[in-house]
């Protein structure tokens, strides 16, 4: 085993003296016979100790035409004058210490000076290699320190293999730490979350000092040796937070944010974002936090990263779109003259999500199997409510074009919405914020709302909304009248549910795959209709409670009359279909486009 004071000389001359003059003298009391210039700094030395250990200096002296040559010049010396000074001290047998800060420089300098075993045993190359193999590669922390120093060295560092040696050592030691952390995880199970996270992946912070090129090689090596994907994700997140600090929130809304030519720092940050995205594990078991994915997507957009990088982030977000919050989708736009929010990016994310739904439906699997991580109908309903809320948030933007707004509405299929209250609210807000729309544009926009899927409250508001086209108001009144008639007669409305059930028998001419796809579609439609019936039933029950309270207020002794009325309404609620009464609920204000009450309304499907 080599000690860190590896280069100690057994005997140090009392006449040894080092001075920081223009010409550096190793022995001040012995006249030097050769001067070596390194990067403009001169060293007055002696030929004999140099040629006895350095093959390069020996060849330069031997090849000189003048046998009494007194001056040599070394160009592009690895590590500069300071490393050359340490190399010369080694030639003179002087005492100094090899450390993680200078071992890479010394190894490259020894390679440059050809200080091999051919000229002297235990020469500088052998000493540096011994330190690397016996001390550096045994420690993850020391390997990171040495690899960090290699970034300032010329290509000779790659030639002698120092970075590769350190990278492999980091990966292997991280894998060992992973085994140790498995035991630590058991010890930390009963402790707090902070303690548990502290006893895992302590090396994550150490890697953040590396440049992006070396960091990329380290993470790839970790993936090869089997380091856990969640550990790699934690490292990537910490590296991003450390290296991308310069991008502040103030830059997002700066009107002059789009510069004709990005700076060198911005180009470097763009490369960092692209590299980190490429390093994200593809294993589905590794869950990357959604807020980090959205943060990286915002960075990629601001720095104008490669399209492939942005598309990959959008694809990863679409994989879990049902878990996204509304604030995550509100991505500021960086283009001047565009809408305040980046609607195009959200549109692409939604396209990716719907493609996954379609692929899942086309898979030839069992009737009940939807695969791990498949969106499913419940996820689609959640996304439908999320997009309706998103539309309501971006609708007041005066720069949002009608084309983009309609495209965001049309992309969702009909079965993604149980009721259209959220969509109606978003359209109403858009009409209020854009009063200059033509009549044709208003009709085109309002046509996207299915009046049969509006709740009682939304219908009451739409019937009194003067911003809507006359045709839509007439439709709302017609369907409300039809709904009331069906509710009073106890029928199921337009027979939609019965028609779906009767058409559910697959045709014998269809292939098994087509039969299965048809059954899945009809099953989805039945679920959607049941959800609508639940909403209608809930409205009728609320209407019943309201009427009960009103009768009690009017007459304190009307128990017999109210009991018969309650039973009649109860029969209507049980046997009626999606229709419901059109009574205006007293004491309740019509639902408008302003206010937090309408804005926070949510419709869930149990």
UniProtKB/TrEMBL annotation:
<protein>
    <recommendedName>
        <fullName>Phototropic-responsive NPH3 family protein</fullName>
    </recommendedName>
</protein>
<keyword id="KW-0175">Coiled coil</keyword>
<dbReference type="InterPro" id="IPR000210">
    <property type="entry name" value="BTB/POZ_dom"/>
</dbReference>
<feature type="domain" description="NPH3">
    <location>
        <begin position="201"/>
        <end position="483"/>
    </location>
</feature>
<comment type="pathway">
    <text>Protein modification; protein ubiquitination.</text>
</comment>
<dbReference type="InterPro" id="IPR011333">
    <property type="entry name" value="SKP1/BTB/POZ_sf"/>
</dbReference>
<comment type="similarity">
    <text>Belongs to the NPH3 family.</text>
</comment>
<keyword id="KW-0833">Ubl conjugation pathway</keyword>
<dbReference type="Pfam" id="PF00651">
    <property type="entry name" value="BTB"/>
</dbReference>
<feature type="domain" description="BTB">
    <location>
        <begin position="32"/>
        <end position="100"/>
    </location>
</feature>
<feature type="region of interest" description="Disordered">
    <location>
        <begin position="572"/>
        <end position="606"/>
    </location>
</feature>
<dbReference type="Pfam" id="PF03000">
    <property type="entry name" value="NPH3"/>
</dbReference>
<dbReference type="InterPro" id="IPR027356">
    <property type="entry name" value="NPH3_dom"/>
</dbReference>
<dbReference type="InterPro" id="IPR043454">
    <property type="entry name" value="NPH3/RPT2-like"/>
</dbReference>
<feature type="coiled-coil region">
    <location>
        <begin position="516"/>
        <end position="543"/>
    </location>
</feature>
């Amino acid at each position: 085993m080599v000690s860190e004071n590896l280069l100690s000389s057994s005997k140090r001359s009392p006449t040894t003296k080092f001075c920081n003059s223009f010409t550096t003298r190793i022995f001040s009391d012995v006249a030097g016979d050769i001067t070596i210039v390194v990067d403009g700094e001169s060293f007055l030395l002696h030929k004999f100790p140099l040629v006895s250990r350095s093959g390069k200096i020996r060849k330069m002296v031997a090849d000189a035409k003048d046998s009494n040559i007194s001056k040599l010049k070394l160009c592009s010396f690895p590590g500069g004058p300071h490393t050359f000074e340490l190399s010369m001290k080694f030639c003179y047998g002087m005492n100094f210490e090899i450390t993680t800060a200078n071992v890479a420089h010394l190894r490259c300098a020894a390679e440059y000076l050809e200080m091999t075993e051919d000229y002297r045993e235990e020469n500088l190359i052998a000493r540096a290699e011994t330190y690397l193999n016996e001390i550096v590669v045994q420690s993850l922390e020391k390997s990171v320190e040495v690899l960090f120093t290699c970034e300032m060295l010329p290509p000779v560092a790659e030639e002698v293999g120092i970075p590769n040696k350190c990278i492999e050592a980091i990966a292997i030691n991280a894998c060992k730490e992973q085994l140790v952390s498995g035991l630590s995880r058991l010890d930390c199970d009963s402790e707090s979350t902070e303690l548990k996270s502290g006893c895992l992946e302590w090396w994550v912070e150490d890697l953040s000092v590396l440049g992006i090129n070396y960091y990329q090689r380290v993470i790839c090596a970790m993936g090869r040796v089997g380091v856990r994907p969640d550990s790699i994700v934690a490292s990537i997140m910490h590296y991003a937070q450390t290296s991308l600090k310069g991008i502040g929130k103030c830059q997002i809304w700066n009107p002059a944010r789009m510069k004709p030519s990005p700076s060198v720092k911005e180009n470097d940050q763009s490369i960092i974002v692209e590299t980190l995205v490429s390093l994200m594990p593809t294993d589905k078991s590794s869950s990357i936090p959604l807020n980090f994915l959205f943060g990286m997507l915002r960075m990629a957009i601001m720095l104008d990263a490669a399209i492939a990088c942005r598309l990959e982030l959008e694809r990863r977000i679409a994989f879990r779109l049902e878990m996204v919050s509304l604030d995550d989708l509100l991505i500021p736009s960086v283009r001047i003259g565009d809408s305040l929010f980046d609607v195009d990016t959200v549109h692409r994310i939604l396209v990716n999500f719907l493609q996954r739904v379609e692929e899942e439906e086309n898979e030839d699997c069992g009737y009940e199997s939807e695969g791990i991580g498949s969106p499913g109908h419940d996820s689609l309903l959640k996304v439908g409510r999320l997009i309706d809320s998103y539309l309501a948030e971006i609708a007041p933007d005066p720069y949002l074009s009608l084309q983009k707004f309609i495209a965001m509405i049309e992309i969702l299929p009909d079965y993604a919405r149980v009721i259209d209250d959220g969509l109606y609210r978003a359209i109403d807000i858009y009409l209020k914020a854009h009063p200059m729309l033509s009549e044709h544009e208003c009709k085109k926009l309002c046509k996207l709302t299915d009046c049969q899927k509006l709740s009682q409250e939304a219908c009451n508001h739409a019937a009194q909304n003067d911003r809507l086209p006359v045709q839509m108001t007439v439709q709302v009144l017609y369907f409300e009248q039809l709904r009331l008639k069906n509710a009073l007669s106890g029928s199921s409305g337009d027979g939609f549910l019965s028609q779906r059930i009767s058409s559910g028998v697959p045709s014998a001419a269809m292939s098994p795959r087509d039969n299965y796809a048809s059954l899945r579609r009809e099953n989805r439609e039945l679920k959607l209709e049941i959800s609508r019936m639940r909403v209608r039933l809930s409205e009728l029950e609320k209407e019943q409670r309201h009427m009960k309270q009103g009768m009690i207020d009017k007459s304190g002794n009307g128990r017999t009359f109210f009991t018969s009325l309650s039973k009649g309404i109860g029969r209507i609620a049980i046997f009626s279909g999606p229709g419901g009464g059109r009574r205006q609920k007293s004491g309740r204000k019509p639902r408008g486009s302003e206010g937090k009450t309408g804005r926070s309304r949510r419709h869930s499907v149990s």
